[in-house]
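Appendix B. Extra example for self-study. Work through it before the problem class; the solution is given directly after the inputs so you can check yourself.
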Amino acid sequence: MLKMRIAVDAFGGDNAPLDVLKGSAEAIKLYDDISVILTGKREIIEATAKEHNISMERIKIVDAPSVIEVEESPIKILKEKSDCSMAVAFKLLAEGEADAFLSAGSTAAIVVGASSYIKKIKGVKRAALSTVMPSDTGFFLLLDAGANIDCKPEVLTQFGIMGSIYMEKVMGVNNPRVALANIGEEDCKGDTLRVDTYQMLKDASINFTGNIEARDIPLDGADVVVADGFTGNVILKLMEGMGKVLSNSLKRIFFKNAISKISALLVKGSIKDLRKKMDYTEYGGAPLLGIAKPVIKAHGSSNAKAFRNAIRQARFFVQSTAIKDIEENIKSFSAKKED
Amino acid sequence: MLKMRIAVDAFGGDNAPLDVLKGSAEAIKLYDDISVILTGKREIIEATAKEHNISMERIKIVDAPSVIEVEESPIKILKEKSDCSMAVAFKLLAEGEADAFLSAGSTAAIVVGASSYIKKIKGVKRAALSTVMPSDTGFFLLLDAGANIDCKPEVLTQFGIMGSIYMEKVMGVNNPRVALANIGEEDCKGDTLRVDTYQMLKDASINFTGNIEARDIPLDGADVVVADGFTGNVILKLMEGMGKVLSNSLKRIFFKNAISKISALLVKGSIKDLRKKMDYTEYGGAPLLGIAKPVIKAHGSSNAKAFRNAIRQARFFVQSTAIKDIEENIKSFSAKKED
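Solution. Structure tokens for the complete assembly:
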């Protein structure tokens, strides 16, 4: 059986390369149909694996000698440092040496890199950073989460189509409810962008359920939330901040004194369940939808589990028909528009 | 001593008129320097007061015979139904018969009404709906929360100035930190509107602390958060939704079984504190800043306590020098710009 090859940037993120290695080894153990190609400084990767006794079975290293400084611009990273770990991983994907790309490096660099090394799906105007977020009792996909600040109605409509296909084909959600983030439910609400996008989304072959007010977003109001990159980024980060408020609030309740600590013991299981639900690492990475090959961005502070789950996500993505389906749906939507 | 007269729309909000009456009577009891003028159908107000044994001491009724249907447009409400409870309250304020206006009715109608019955403060471009929101360990002012979808840099800068003065003079926050809601901290981040507004806010005579990412908004990152009405409304409602998630999460933890209920008893006080902190009614209503007289919007689902606290807020607003200070600061900022 031919194995799926996942190119992983070993030097992206706050916990690289150790947690990248650990996560990769864990994923390899779970799925016997994958292999991992780590890109980065070979000697450091090898030394780290040895020091921490991490198995390198089905993990190949492709040397990438350049080191990126945090403050370097994304364009510079990919143009001038084409032998840095991220660029090398992109090249493996571009040349067919890998089937998917994963990095916890700079979002801007991944967005720029994906569009320069890999082409977009035919007909797609913009690639969208698409983040799976926890909601009150489940999860939803938010796109765009910050890659495209200025969007036109057609761009947002394509986001709706791509998000719907990803949730159905990769995340296994049946007939996903796609909604447009807006400041009211009626179709006349919001600015011109929202009003025009509403009409266009109505004509797409997806389960468009209309506008969604921000209040209903974390309360399971939709499976796919469509937003321009500015609004989407505000939603993403505000939910992160409020997650932190929730966690701080629980700490203040339970760590106040000896009695509150006893109370915490009594509901330990439920607290653990809640923490798990709120934990972004459970949901894998954020795909860059619209790129012709699977490109996944992991959270900058990813730990080993987050990398393992992002590799799992990459595996589902490669196995799915999502990219082909996006191309076909976008094509037929464009044809319909021209009628 | 001359009493402050607060005009209160007795028929605005989900719990009108009963909770409006109750809240007014409670406020009257707390503050002996105020009187309340309730606007609405006299016979219903009188019957409600009698039925619920509510004291009408220092509460006057001004009859407003028209009834507004929920689906009526704000323009229609105020033009065609100029004898509805909200319009009558505005007229009292306009004619100097009242010192402040309070309503839990339609936000759009209040925004339109304030601009037509009362003039804006000299030099102010747009009035901003300004909401006090709970944060992790305190509170902050968000403006605009939804009255102005499209904003120019000068409009946002004025919001910063007005918000700073309100927080200092009415809410008692010393040297409030004013920040611009954006998708990154550096001054080059965001769209043209954000980049230009950043430069203009730097020149205002306020404690401008730069851009704030949405993650830091609920984590006490600023005392005044400046946003266009679309972004501000998304922030407001998403925080409401996440507050509901927090409350649902606590319920799931504590109401699971007999043991979890014992656990809840042990931390009862802390849970109560948290609920109080998250309770919007604690923070009074939302002022419409930029209008030449105090206009306050109470939450649509306000209960008696919310009305009482909104009247308290109106009282502080009238007592303060906020409106005069806004006029002076806006004037000197405009002069500085022209230099």
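Self-check: The mean pLDDT of chain A is 92. If your reasoning did not lead you there, revisit section 3.
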